[in-house]
Write a structure and sequence with these properties.
Layout (H helix, E strand, L loop, with lengths): L8 H14 L3 E4 L4 H14 L2 E3 L9 E3 L13 E4 L12 E2 L1 H12 L7 E9 L8 E7 L2 H10 L1 E2 L1 H7 L5 E6 L21 E5 L4 E5 L4 H4 L2 H17 L2 E3 L2 E6 L5 E7 L6 H5 L9 E6 L3 E5 L5 E4 L4 E5 L5 H10 L5 E3 L2 E2 L5 E2 L11 E2 L5 E2 L13 E5 L16 E9 L9 E3 L3 H9 L2 E3 L11 E3 L12 H15 L5 E5 L19 H11 L5 E4 L2 E4 L13 H7 L4 H18 L5 H15 L1
Parallel strand pairs: 1-6, 3-19, 4-5, 4-10, 7-9, 9-11, 14-25, 25-29
Antiparallel strand pairs: 2-3, 6-7, 6-8, 10-11, 12-16, 13-14, 13-15, 16-17, 17-25, 18-24, 19-24, 20-21, 22-23, 26-29, 27-28, 30-31
Bound molecules: guanosine-5'-triphosphate (GTP), sulfopyruvate and manganese (II) ion.
Length: 597
């Protein structure tokens, strides 16, 4: 392919302009074919970025090891540029658009020297469907091209579907120009100088310096959440950091549920759950992002705009997520995992026994006696969704699937019960707005620190968090009786010795069953100030070997614990500022009053 493959004038002139700015050695238009992918992978093997895995054990798959300074999203290097600072609010890094553009133009000048510039037309959502949105990513990273081919739909068919319509320009450079004769490194980047910049008003995305995950695969967090959330607000729909799953009861009733948990808090695992309770079946629509619209029948329908999984590797096993293990059995990319002597990958908890000898994610020899972990805590697999054995038959239906419930959650070792239900939409929105979780390795920075993360969107909302919460209130008004019911879960409560109280994973199906039975008016609940909590008898614990005292602790709501959080929630709300809807503040006041009552 080349620029003659399209009549799209905006695209042709943008590619020309970028080439003049970044001065690459050559330009490659991606057609998305298998041959192209294979030759790109070969190029990465030759460059030392990829290690080809043993084809008998892991066909058509590769291990990539990144620079130690480039292993996760960088929230403090993520910027939103709008005319008015007030439009992005205090929880985002705002920058004045023109100054940032000057800065970026400086950084991108000559940034692709000595490298190939790839043009990747990509579709978020099924190609050619009305719900899909098209972007074009220009990048100098063949690793990004390979990942984008798995995570999104790319190539000639997208260019054709685009025609002469508008698209989202996404410019990416690893920021490592090569002088003539200069030897390349295995993971070129500009680790000290990353900029992940969004212009929601244009819209456009500029990402510089990082080649990793959400920093570089611009269809995902940058487009499908930060930019899409601003489009959604303006156009009356929702772009959320949510998994989507379908649950079928023994009576064959199907319920679709969306789940918003912060990064590395269990979305992928829940999306592919293998229920342990007899007669219940689960199917996966998506594991990270949901785009949702109200349709003519009044209901809210969700699509997964992605086509692959960029999943947390450590902790993934046949026991915890057998469906992910099948999805990543072939045609996959592994980043920062360990390598076995037989040419296959390994990560912590993948198998019960740790292999006696490995190469760790730095490519150093590693044994169980070595200091540190063999894989990076944010090591990831990139695997095609189509390889997941439990994909829902409707997962690529551009019409989406009708949503009956939302689940919010996070990592809380105390205070928050296993599951409870909001009494109404407004209380649910309030619960979403006070979501909190202990931070994880998915973003650079401290791990295990409690932070408020409304709707798991704190790092991904492209506009003012107060306006975003207002948008949730407004969606409830529009949806009325068709609004999904709202629940809150916590798989991560611990006992006094620091052990998980709840076995999690497949056993979470017991909680999903309670949720479905609440929707059907079949399960009991007790009224508490925070919402409706299961009675001991209403949870199906058949065949589960855990002491009743643990279950009581799991569903305990202690007024004194919750009261302790109120000042900190007020403080968080005050940082969100006066954009916060009054109804949500009123919910906080009434929670406090009933906790004291
Ligand atoms: P992102 O891809 O960053 O958005 O993460 P995610 O929300 O999809 O999280 P994921 O499902 O990958 O889980 C992250 C980590 O939490 C993994 O190490 C899992 O093993 C662990 N985890 C997931 N579900 C459970 C659970 O039910 N109980 C416990 N104890 N751990 C869980
Ligand atoms: C997340 O951090 O929520 C992810 C990984 O899904 S990344 O794509 O790097 O943002
Ligand atoms: Mn995520």
């Amino acid at each position: 392919m080349n620029d003659a493959s399209t009549k799209n004038q905006k695209l042709v002139s943008w590619v020309k302009e970028v080439a003049e700015l970044c001065t690459p050695a050559d330009i490659h238009w991606c057609d998305g074919s298998q041959e192209e992918y294979d030759s790109m992978a070969q190029r990465l093997v030759d460059a030392g970025t990829f290690v080809r895995l043993n084809p008998d054990l892991r066909p058509n798959s590769y291990l990539a090891r990144s620079d130690t300074g480039d292993v996760a999203r960088v929230e403090d290097r993520t910027f939103i540029c709008t005319t008015n600072e007030d439009d992005v609010g205090p929880t985002n890094n705002w920058t004045e658009p023109e100054g940032m553009r000057k800065k970026l133009k400086g950084l991108f000048t000559g940034s692709m020297k000595g490298r190939t510039m790839f043009v990747i037309p990509f579709s978020m959502g099924p190609v050619g469907s009305e719900t899909a949105k098209i972007g074009v990513e220009i990048t100098d990273s063949p690793y990004v091209v390979c990942n984008m081919r798995i995570m999104t739909r790319i190539g000639s068919e997208v260019l054709e579907a685009l025609g002469e319509d508008d698209f989202l320009p996404c410019l990416h450079s690893i920021g490592a120009p090569l002088e003539p004769g200069q030897e390349d490194v295995f993971w070129p980047c500009d680790a000290e100088n990353k900029y992940i910049v969004h212009y929601p008003e244009e819209p456009s995305i500029w990402s510089y310096g990082s080649g990793y995950g959400g920093n570089a695969l611009l269809g995902k967090k940058c487009f499908a959440l930060r930019i899409a959330s601003t489009m959604a607000r303006n156009e009356g729909w929702m772009a959320e950091h949510m998994l989507i799953l379908g649950l079928t009861s023994p009576e064959k009733k199907k319920t679709y549920i969306g789940g918003a948990f912060p990064s590395a808090c269990g979305k992928t695992n829940l999306a592919m759950i293998q229920p342990t309770i007899p007669g219940w079946e689960a199917t996966c629509v998506g594991d990270d992002i949901a785009w949702m619209r109200q349709k003519a029948d009044g209901k809210l329908y969700a699509i997964n705009p992605e086509a692959g999984f960029f999943g947390v590797a450590p902790g993934t096993s046949e026991h915890s997520n057998g469906n992910a293990m099948t999805a990543l059995a072939k045609n996959s990319i592994f980043t920062n995992t360990a390598l076995k002597p037989n040419g296959d990958i390994w990560w912590e908890e993948m198998t019960e026994e740790t292999p006696p000898e490995l190469e760790d994610w730095h490519a150093d020899k590693w044994t169980p006696a070595s200091e540190g972990k063999a894989s990076n805590p944010n090591a990831r697999y990139t695997a095609p969704a189509s390889q997941c054995p439990v994909m829902d038959p409707e997962w690529e239906n551009p019409e989406g699937v009708p949503m009956s419930a939302f689940i919010f959650g996070g990592r809380r070792s105390n205070v928050v019960p296993l599951v409870f239900e909001a009494k109404n939409w407004l209380q649910g929105v309030f619960l979403g707005s006070i979501m909190a979780s202990e931070t994880t390795a998915a973003a650079a920075g401290a791990v295990g620190k409690l932070r408020r993360d409304p709707f798991a969107m704190l790092p991904f909302c492209g506009y003012h968090m107060g306006d975003y919460i207002k948008h949730w209130v407004g969606m409830g008004e529009k949806l009325g009786d068709n609004a999904p019911r709202i629940f809150y879960v916590n798989w991560f409560r611990k006992d006094a010795d620091g052990n998980w109280l709840w076995p999690g994973f497949g056993e979470n199906s017991r909680v999903l069953k309670w949720i479905c039975e609440r929707i059907d008016g079949k399960a009991d609940a007790q009224d508490t100030p925070i919402g409706l909590v299961p009675t001991l008898e209403s949870l199906d614990l058949n065949g589960l070997d855990i002491p009743e005292s643990d279950v009581s602790e799991l569903i305990a709501v202690r007024a004194e614990d919750w009261l302790q959080e109120i000042p900190e929630i007020r403080e968080f709300f005050s940082t969100v500022g006066n954009q916060l809807p009054s109804q949500v503040l009123a919910e906080l006041d009434s929670l406090e009053a009933s906790l004291k009552g």
